[in-house]
Each structure stands twice: as C-alpha cells, then as structure tokens.
Amino acid sequence: MDLRITPLRVEDAGTIAVLQNSLWRLTYAGLLPPDVLAARDDETNIGVWRDRAAAHESAGVSPEGARTLVAHDERGTAIGWATTGPPRDADPPTATELWSLYVAPEHHGCGVARRLLAAVLPSSAPAHLWVVRGNDRAITFYRTAGFAPDGLVKRDDRVGADELRMVRHGAGHD
Questions:
Q1: Whole-angstrom Cα distance, residue 83 to residue 8?
Q2: Are 111 and 1 in contact (CB under 8 A)?
Q3: Mind listing the pLDDT tens digit for each residue in 67-94?
C-alpha cells in the first residue's frame, strides 16, 4: 500500500473527526455505554480537530503538547492517526504517553497502525498508554509492539469504562 505519513493538517480535520466518531461506535460497541457513543457529534468533533490541527500547523504540537501524525492513502485521504504527548497521569511510568492510535477498518491488517506507531514513537522510546478493557484487538496489537500491562486499572468516568495501562520500556529494557 502506498502510504504517506504527515503531521496533522487543517485539511485532515474533517475526515479525521468523522472517522474518529465512526471508529468509536465500531470499536467500543458493547464496551462503552450506548449513550456515550450516541452523543458523539460530527460537527462538534470537526471543530475540535480543526483547532487541534491549526495549533499543529503553527506550533507543531497541540496546546497540551501532543503531536499527531496522520496516515494518508494513495488518494491522499486520511485513513488513521497516532498521537503522543506528555503523560496525563499523576504518577506516570514513562515521560511519553501514546494518547491515541486509530486506523480505518478497511485498512486493518495492512501495516498502517504499525507504521504510524513507528513514526510517532520509535521502538527505542519508552512509553505508556491506556486501553479500554475488553478492546482485545488493540491489546494484542500493543503487546506485539512491546507494550505490556503493568497491572494498573483506572475508571474513566467520562466514557464509563475501565482502562488498562500498558507500558513499553523501550529497546533493550523489556
């Protein structure tokens, strides 16, 4: 597959916002309360992503210090993204958190997620992430990428789900 990975751009915002809502409904059906998924609004999310993209274009990161890379297919359409940033935990196990990694379902199994992860977070870099309990596909992917659960679980009341923390200590530290 011809794949191009670029920093987040304003012209990607609409596609990513709609894709994110679609992916949430697909990925988290049965894992998050139905009202949480139904409340996802494309127009609101487009505004969030436009603001984030504008900050990226001017500063290279979001106002929170996060960096997003976007995968584009051969037509130039955004088909996935990955975001890293400073830890959002009070007591983080690493200095970098993988905030998100999503790929359109028609591109699952094609190496897009692996390439996005490598671009946004080199394998030698220690990092951690939170994944919704029961999201077995993601947990399996992250294990393959060197992440392992560290035993910490937290309740995310914003989405009504428990999340597992996974940590990768980097090359030579696993």
A1: 10
A2: yes
A3: 999 999 999 999 999 999 999 988 999 9
